[in-house]
Amino acid sequence: MKLIKLNPVTNGTRHQINLQKNLLSKTNKLAKSSINGFKQAYGRSSSNGRITVWHKGGGCKRLFRNIESKNVKFYAIILTIMYDPVRNSFISLNFDFETKRFFRTLATSLVFPGSIIICDSQKLDLRLGYRTVLENIPTGSLVHSLSLSENESIKFVRAAGTFCQIIQKDLKTCTLRLPSGNLIKVPISSFGTLGAISNAQDKLVYLGKAGRNRHKGIRPTVRGIAMNPVDHPHGGRTNGGRPSVTPWGIPTKGKPTVLKKKRYE
Q: Nearest-CA neighbor of 162 among 213, 88, 103, 86?
């Protein structure tokens, strides 16, 4: 995809950088007819209306597209690449020749409409977009949409432009380097898709104005020191000599608050 820098005719477009999405399908009747329901960001309790998630609410309604997250065997052709409002990567609309059904998957980078994609646990003549067990993929390859077994859904490497690399394999396990740099061990029977997730340039987009964040359902983030004492421990505009804490009094600097990462073996 190509990046577009808008002409600075208003304050909102002065620094705005967008993705040119004219290659994506948006007038396909088949694609539109298979979209159902919508999601909207509320951030409040459905029973009493109190805020349950900070900085969330409002935004545009977003039509929901179901994604094939299970490792169902298929032999399909990519019909079109589509935009998905609930994730930053693109999705592809596919047609399975064997079951005669339409389904969606996360789009792989450099795999275009008209390409054949396969999901099978048997040995394949590997190409970009093919999905199989890690046992069939050579060491050093890049994979995405990782699931830990045949019956589990996709759990790792789903964001735009991300991929993990196969570092080492033995008879039972496979060592992978995640996009975060962490190394994990997963069963060699885990499923992965060859290649990287599409829309790698998403991180280069510059919104340019606060209104685009409001369209996404993201509300303003207020500093704790700018609040009243009843709203935050930092409130009252007096630093008070207290170390930085969360709104619930948990230290934010120095004290480890994250659980030790689980290793899949």
A: 88
Return d(Cα 255, Cα 179) in angstroms, integer. Answer: 25
Residues near 2 by Cβ (< 8 Å), separated by ≥ 6? 19, 20
**Side chain identity, residue 149:** S
Q: How far apart are CA 29 and CA 31, in angstroms?
A: 5
Contacts (Cβ under 8 Å, ≥6 apart) of 207:
16, 213
- Only one residue has tokens 């690399």, namely 165
Is pLDDT above 90 for 163? yes
32 in Cβ contact with 69 (< 8 Å):
no
Confidence of residue 121 (pLDDT cuts 50, 70, 90): confident
Q: Is the pTM of this model over 0.70?
A: yes
Assess contact for 93 and 30: CB atoms under 8 A: yes
- Calculate the average pLDDT of the chain: 87
The full set of domains in the chain, from first to last, is 2-201 (2.30.30.30)
Q: What are phi and psi of 221, to 5 degrees?
A: -105, 115
The alpha carbon of 133 is separated from its chain's Cα centroid by a whole number of angstroms, namely 22
∠ at Cα 84 (73, 109), nearest 5°?
A: 60
**End-to-end CA separation in angstroms for the chain:** 38
- In one-letter notation, the amino acid at residue 167 is I
pLDDT of residue 264: 53
